[in-house]
Amino acid sequence: MSTGLWVTLTYRDADAGLAWLQAVGFTERAVYRDDADPAVVQHAELDWPAGGGVMLGTYRPRPGWPDEAGTGSAYAVTDDVDGTYRAALAAGGSSLQEPADQDYGGRSCTVRDVDGNLWSFGSYRGEE
Prior knowledge:
Layout: E1 6-11, H1 14-23, E2 27-33, E3 41-47, E4 53-58, E5 73-77, H2 81-90, E6 94-101, E7 107-112, E8 118-122
Parallel strand pairs: 1-4, 5-8
Antiparallel strand pairs: 2-3, 3-4, 6-7, 7-8
Domain VOC: 3-124
InterPro entries: Glyas_Bleomycin-R_OHBP_Dase, Glyas_Fos-R_dOase_dom, VOC_core
Protein name: Similarity with Glyoxalase/Bleomycin resistance protein
C-alpha cells in the first residue's frame, strides 16, 4: 500500500537530517542527489514503522516558500516513547519536553532535531 500522508521538510545539511531521522527509527526508502553536487539531496523519502513518512531535501531559497529550514514540526506514533527520546538526544537532538504521561492519554515527548525542526513522539494514536 502506498503512503497517504507525508511530512515534508528541508534541511541545511540534509545528510545530517537523514542520519538523525534514521537514528530515531525512520528507514530510508529513496535518496536522490544532485549530479553536479552529491552533497545536495534533491529528494529523499523515509518510512516510519507505525506508518507514514518524511520527504526531505536540502534547503534552497524559493519564492513563496518558508525563508529558512528548521521551521517544521511533526508528531510520530511509537510504542517506545522513552527509547525514541533517548535515541533522538544521542543523535544530536535537544529536549523541549521529556517523556511524560498526558491527561488525554498516552505518553509523549518533544525534541528539536539537528536543524531545528520540532518532533513530538508519542504513544497516543488519536481517537479510534
